[in-house]
Amino acid sequence: METMDTECKVCGGTGWKSLPAQASPAGGKKPSPQVARCDCRIGAKTNRLLANARIPKRYEHCSLESFHTEFEGKHAKSLADARLNAGRFVEEYPIQGQGLLFTGSIGVGKTHLAVGIIKALIETKGIDCLFFDYRELLKQIQNSYNTSVNATELGILRPVFDTEVLVLDELGAAKPSEWVWDTVSLIINTRYNDKRTTIITTNYPDGDAASAEIDQLQRTARPLTLGDRIGDRMRSRLHEMCKIVDMRGKDFRQQVQSANFR
Length: 262
Ligand SMILES: Nc1ncnc2c1ncn2[C@@H]1O[C@H](COP(=O)(O)OP(=O)(O)O)[C@@H](O)[C@H]1O
Ligand SMILES: [Mg+2]
Ligand SMILES: [Zn+2]
Description:
Elements: E1 16-19, E2 34-37, H1 39-52, H2 76-92, E3 99-103, H3 110-125, E4 129-133, H4 134-144, H5 153-162, E5 165-169, H6 178-193, E6 197-202, H7 216-221, H8 226-230, H9 232-241, E7 242-246, H10 252-257
Parallel strand pairs: 3-6, 3-7, 4-5, 5-6
Antiparallel strand pairs: 1-2
Bound molecules: adenosine-5'-diphosphate, magnesium ion and zinc ion (ZN).
C-alpha cells in the first residue's frame, strides 16, 4: 500500500509524470508537453478497487495464472476451455457485452475462475468489480429488515446494482421461497435493464424446473436444476445475459490430496 507522504521518485507525489516529447507529425506544430497518470497512482487505484471488491480471504489466492489446466483424462478439455473463456472474456471486456455463467459440481474451480476474472479486470483495466456470495447477500438483505440493524435494503443492494461487473457466487444455493425469488429477480432484472455484466457460478446443472405435472416421486428422483432453484423465468433471462460455461472434473482439492498435483 502506498502512503501519500512517501514521495514517489517518478512524479514527486503529484500523480502526474511527463512523457518524452513525441515526434511532431509531418508539417505539424511544435509538440506540446505530454503528461500521464503516474504508475504510483495506478497502483493506488488498483488497491482501492481490490479492497472494494469484497473478495473473500479464502479466494484471495485465485488468479487466472494460478488455474491449472494441464489435466489428463476425459475432463481435461472442459477445464482448459473454461480457462480459455475466462481469459478471452477479460481481454475482450467490455466489447462482448455478455457475462459468463459457470456451471459444474463442487470443487471444479468455478469460484476460482470468477475471482481470477475480476482480479484481472481490476489489475489490467481498472474496472469496478464486486464479489458476493448468493446466500450471504440474501442474509444481509434479510438482516437489514431488522430495525435494530443500521442498514437498509437499498444500502446493501445499491453497490450490487451499480458495480460494473458483479460476481454472484453459488447462485441457487439458498432454499427457494417467494421472497428469495423476488429478490433474485430484482437483482438480475436491474442489472439486465442497466446492461451491466454479471458473472455467475452455480453448482446446479443448467436445466428447466420440474413441471407441476411430474408426480412427486419422479420429481424427487430427478436431480435438482438451476430452474428448480431460481425459476425458469430467471434462468432464461440469464441465458440472455451470460454465456454458459460448463465445467467438468473432479473436486480439485481431492486431486491435490491424491497427489496428482503439487
Ligand atoms: N484448475 C485449478 N487450478 C488451481 N486451483 C484450483 C483449480 N480448480 C480448483 N482449484 C482450487 O480448489 C479449490 C476449490 O475450487 P473452487 O473454485 O472453490 O470450486 P467451485 O467453486 O467449483 O466449487 C479452491 O481453493 C481453488 O483455488
Ligand atoms: Mg464455488
Ligand atoms: Zn508517482
